[in-house]
Amino acid sequence: MYCPRIPVGNMMKVMTMKSYKRIILPLLAAILVVTGCHKKRDYDYSRWYVDPNEGDGGRKLSTMTFNVRSSSMEERYEVNTWAARRPGVKAMMSDRKPVLMGTQECKIDQREHILADHPEYGAIWADNISHSKEETEECTIFYIKDSVEVLRYGTFYLSSTPDVESKPNATNHYRVCTWGKLKMKNDGKLLYYFNTHLDLELSIQQFEMDVILNKMRTINTENLPIFLTADFNCDEDSNIFGGIKGDGFLSARLEAVVGDSYKTFNGFGYNGSSRLDHCFFKDFSAVTRFTTIRNAYAGIEYISDHYPVSIILKF
Predict the structure, then answer these.
(1) What is the total count of domains within the chain?
(2) Across the beta sheet with 141-144, what order do the strands follow?
(3) Fewer beta carbons within 10 angstroms: which end of the chain, N or C?
(4) pTM of the prediction?
(5) Does some domain include residue 52?
(6) How far apart are CA 252 and CA 243, in angstroms?
(7) What is the dihedral of CA 271, 273, 276, 278, to 10 degrees?
């Protein structure tokens, strides 16, 4: 058989090319696979929270309740104004990436600022409210648009006539509850989310909770998984929660596999002493994590006079 003689130099080139293909091409393929996996993880993270420490592969919904401190408040110090705190709120949301976030004391300008800072989010707000009343606030629900489809939504007043603008005679404040029927886009799971802010007066809080429970029963006729977040302006052991607990709702703080018992009202560090911000849920299988977020963000120690609270709910 005739075998052509290949000069040593050319042979080295052939071997070098073969070695290159044998080593470099698999490496490039591995890089592409790793890059693709990274993108997939980011994609999944925006829709579901997956805790790498749990390893159960279960999909969990990342939610948050956060009293943002109204921008209309006159603050003692410049550092506590909304203009100064806004970068900290932006950094916190970028870090935590909640799929859903219920806010209290949110004014129109704050809602617009949060949406401008985070274009990946949409919002449900009280569009049936007459903003002629300065003391009326929004209980806005923010959601990642790629993750959540809003099927129905609304807002009602915490009064004896909840479907019209009204307030109880015992208070000067118009309190509302905003809700949404939501669908998770990646697998079609359905849930209801209610978000509110109770009055400061203990004497009226029980009445407001009764209004919320009655409306939840009327709205959630499908008995879908449901949760309620709020600045309740009272501690979790208050008797005002007897109604929802009797209806099967559980406290996320008390049920969490990993949780804490930190105070959620910080008063900008001057007079914080209470746990006011809670989450109650029904027909979710578990709460894997409850976290009072006490971190500084963007160099701002207090991004509100309340700490945000993160809740991880498992279907």
Answers:
(1) 2
(2) 121-124, 141-144, 100-104, 60-67, 309-314, 286-292
(3) N
(4) 0.83
(5) no
(6) 16
(7) 130
The region that residue 96 occupies, defined by phi over 0 for left and psi between -120 and 50 for alpha, beta otherwise, is alpha
How far apart, in whole angstroms, are the C-alpha atoms of residue 243 and residue 225? 18
Residue with tokens 């609270």: 309
Q: Phi and psi dihedrals of 66, rounded to 5? A: -155, 115
Q: What is the DSSP letter of 160?
A: S
Query: What tokens does 138 get?
Result: 């929004």
Tell me the pLDDT of the chain (315 aa) as tens digits.
444 444 444 444 434 444 544 555 454 444 333 333 333 333 343 445 555 566 555 578 999 999 999 999 999 999 999 999 999 999 999 999 999 999 999 999 999 999 999 999 999 997 655 545 555 678 999 999 999 999 999 999 999 999 998 888 888 788 999 999 999 988 889 999 999 999 998 889 999 999 999 999 999 999 999 999 999 999 999 999 999 999 999 999 999 999 999 999 999 998 777 999 999 999 999 999 999 999 999 999 999 999 999 999 998
Tokens, residue 285 = 């299988």
The whole domain housing 24 covers 1-47
* Domain annotation covers residue 53: no
Residue whose token pair is 């209290």: 104
Q: Two tokens at 155? A: 């807002």
Are residues 82 and 176 both part of a single domain? yes
Are residue 288 and residue 218 in the same domain, yes or no?
Answer: yes
Angstrom distance (rounded) from CA 156 to CA 208: 11
CATH code at position 306: 3.60.10.10
